[in-house]
Amino acid sequence: MLRSAFSWCALFVFCGTAALAQPQGASDDSLWARQLREPRAPLMRQERNAVDVSRVPECSGLVASRRYPGRLYANNDHGNPPLLHCLDTAGNYIAAFTAPGLTNHDWEELALLEGRPQADGTPAPDSLLIADIGDNLRPDRGVRHHIRLYRLPEPAWVSGPTPHLPDSQHVQYADGPRDAEAILPDPATGELILITKRDAPSRIYRLRPRWDGGTVTAQFVGLLGKTTFVTAASLSPALPDGRRWALVRTLDELLLFAVAPGQSLSQALLQAPQVLEAHAMKYEAQGESIAWAPDGSTLYSLSEENELDRKPRLIRLTWRR
Predict the structure, then answer these.
(1) What confidence tens digit (pLDDT) does each residue in 176-192 have?
(2) What is the CB neighbour count within 10 angstroms for residue 199?
(3) Which residues contact 142 (CB under 8 A, 6 or more apart)?
(4) E strand or H helix at 33
(5) Nearest Cα to 108, choosing from 160, 68, 150?
(6) How far apart are CA 299 and CA 89, in angstroms?
(7) What is the distance between the alpha carbons of residues 68 and 66, in angstroms, rounded to a whole number?
(8) Residue 85 has what DSSP assignment?
(9) Which helix (H) or strand (E) is 35 found in, with range?
(10) Is the separation of the CB atoms in 32 and 297 below 8 Å?
(11) Cα angle for residues 230, 310, 71 (degrees, 5° grid)
């Protein structure tokens, strides 16, 4: 694990002079227009709170609930029990829960599967996607012939086991084992997008889950520019014009990809991103998570424990208003 005793630094700023592209339909006084007028101004402000290290010492996945605003789910990676942990957005611990049949070989990511509208027009409940996709036992290549995904309905607020049996899906890569820590659901296509970690550059794969317990194949799509060591990803809620932002994080950068209405996520990730230099995360103790809040203007990151006070830090980052 990477450690540092450096103090937390300044806010997010743009790398270079590039500014975020304004979505179609955004008004002149919108947030996006203000950022275009002030391209070198700080993009975000950050707050940080310590989290109980005995509960979430090695966070590798984080997602914000839409059903329960102000609630976050987190998971630990390899070597920890198969538990999901619930925190509030101030870092206070709420509860842990699990489900029958869950095993943690190397949980590396969490994502939210948005419920699709039902026949009567009401939205279906959201589900949690647990991605057991880590494969770092060897430094030169992956060794797992199958990784595993779980889909679990978001539970009510009770600790302990949930009454739901998770759906599962085994996945194999078309070109052999890979180590990955980032997954993104694509609302436009129903596919899931995997981004590898240790490949240089990182590789993008897509798969269509059946959730039948069988095996599906993840197909190679392309390379993520020149980026490597991807540790997390998150997809924003839809903007009023239908666009979204896909956020991909490395240890010291955030890459922001514009996703047009109806555009597949796999194609959007092949475009050039906006690169946000994450000063507040450069000295994070191996940050491997990032999550958009339902408001679309707030991000959360939860680090692993650090050498200073042994406490993980929950970072809150807000688009500059």
Answers:
(1) 999 999 999 999 999 99
(2) 19
(3) 135, 136, 176, 177, 178, 179
(4) helix 31-37
(5) 150
(6) 10
(7) 6
(8) E
(9) helix 31-37
(10) no
(11) 65
Within its chain, how far is the Cα of 90 from the centroid? 19
Q: How far apart are CA 149 and CA 134, in angstroms?
A: 11
Which residue's entry shows tokens 């197909």?
219
Amino acid (one-letter) located at 287: G
- Distance between the two ends of the chain, CA-based, in angstroms? 35
Residue with token string 């317990």? 213
Strand-pair partners of 291: 300
CATH of domain 13-319: 2.115.10
Q: Report how far residue 49's alpha carbon sits from residue 44's, in angstroms, rounded to the nearest whole number.
A: 17
Handedness of CA 4, 7, 10, 12 (dihedral sign): positive
Max CA distance (Å), the chain: 55
Give the tens place of pLDDT for each residue, 106-157: 999 999 999 877 778 777 889 999 999 999 888 777 899 999 999 998 887 6
β-strand pairing of 167-173 with 215-223: parallel
**Pairing mode, strands 93-98 and 160-161:** parallel
| 57 CB burial (10 A radius; 0-12, 13-18, 19+) | middle
Burial (CB count within 10 angstroms: exposed 0-12, middle 13-18, buried 19+), residue 84: buried
Angstrom distance (rounded) from CA 127 to CA 103: 18
Between these two residues, 8 and 40, which has the higher pLDDT value?
A: 40
What are the extents of the domains in the chain?
A: 13-319
Judge contact between 259 and 265, C-beta under 8 A: yes
Buried b (16+ CB within 10 A) or exposed e, 303-315: bbbbeeeebbbbb
The tokens of 196 are what?
Answer: 């590898």
